[in-house]
Fold this protein.
Amino acid sequence: EVALVESGGGLVQPGRSLRLSCSASGFTFGDYAMSWFRQAPGKGLEWLSFIRSKTYGVTTEYAASVEGRFSISRDDSKSIVYLQMNSLKTEDTALYYCARDGIGDTFDIWGQGTMVTVSS
Amino acid sequence: DIQMTQSPSSVSASVGDRVTISCRASQGISSWLAWYQQKPGKAPKLLIYASSTLHSGVPPRFSGSASETDFTLTITSLQPEDFATYFCQQAYSFPLTFGGGTRVEIK
């Protein structure tokens, strides 16, 4: 079964760091680009970051709201995509999802999400 | 950045009704638009990509259409499991952007 499972969320103080992980199974992870999204409580979806496959140079894209603070990476040998989040702000509080780019930058497989709460 | 304006923000409908949700892009995005369904406490699910192609396993009562920068998601004969929030997403260029969502509620 194709699946994505996020982990690493939690409660963190403003200014601190957190690393999220997204573990993939059931498909050839290295063949796909991956992305991170978030959804603040009661709000809409926000795209955060994107990483291409090795075929496309493992290049990355970021939303302006997180560029310079967040960093996406991948380990194809472990089928994991990471989101390193630094200098966290209270407005980063949200449910964070990873998703597989299945079809032309649209996302056909999503994880269940991991909650990040930034508060003192 | 490409802005996606989705309307209405909510709609009340009954089982069996036809529901139409609109999404307008601030600039041309060709057919690079997707629609997702999200139920409370769950991750989004891809319904339609490339503006009108039904994702695998999605019932044919869902359909998508496009006219220049205007995109439409239509649900014919609304079913109880269709009560959810729907989002559009442009896949034309980075940053990827979403519409604000449309909540389909039971009338």
Observations:
- Chain A touches chain B at residues 35, 44-47, 50, 61-64, 97, 99, 102-108, 110-113 (CB under 8 Å).
- The longest strand of chain A covers residues 94-103.
